[in-house]
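Recall the central idea of this unit: under ordinary conditions, the amino acid sequence of a chain determines the structure it adopts. In this exercise we apply that idea directly, starting from the sequence alone.
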Amino acid sequence: MPVLHGLGKVWGLLLFMLPSRSRATTLINLRACFPHRSEAEILQLARQSLVNTACTALEMGKAWLPVIEKTLAQVVDKDAAGMQSLEAALIAKKGVIVLAPHLGNWEIFGFAISDNQDATFLYQPPKISALDKLIRRARSRSGIKMVPTDRKGVAQLLKALQRGGLIGVLPDQVPADESGVHARFFGQQAFTMTLVSRLVQRTEARVFCGFAMRLPHSAGFKIIVQEADPSIYSENLEDSVNGLNRSVEKAVGMAISQYQWEYKRLRRQPDGKNLY
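Accordingly, the structure predicted from this sequence is:
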């Protein structure tokens, strides 16, 4: 891991120093979401974010390829209170939705929270079939069932919740036209999925948000789990979606530089403008 992180630091610094799409997108996002921070602070966050994103990419081999026990061994600490709340919700058998934003190492997080659980994860199948097979094979090592982002996949998520299982969703991807609404994200309008809100309205599932925080000096990862913002349970769709984004914001606030600011999260604005 220290070698991978050393390479990640070099890669990330190159992305920061040289003109690149990743650098430009990161700066646009950070300036928009943290307007009260100085330019020096924004540049420091951008540099750290690019390094962390490079580290996440290089860590994928250690998340996907070893036997699952070695992958899970990279988790050296867990948020006790959060894990207790999650375990209590799983015992209740009413269904659990876990929001796993692009923060820290979401692959490690997914394996850690679904270990020995009836787990179903939503994912966007890549266009390259070989990569799709690799992803499904890697993630299914721990028993996770992967379902695509289509009507059939959503139906399987609903069934998983109805039998009291755990489902995992990446809540910060820009959805299709019919699957999202605009909601506040760090003060900006972001086109946000409505799927989680609709699943909550149709079940008694409890919602959590978490991530695997990368610890200093390549020491491993700490699993952070928090209960979602209470407004996510609102019957009002707009309030519920805002609650989803606030849940993600709270998690990101714990490790701002480990969020994937390189993603064009704000590309769909209500007025049709493109910030990028």
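The chain has a mean pLDDT of 93.
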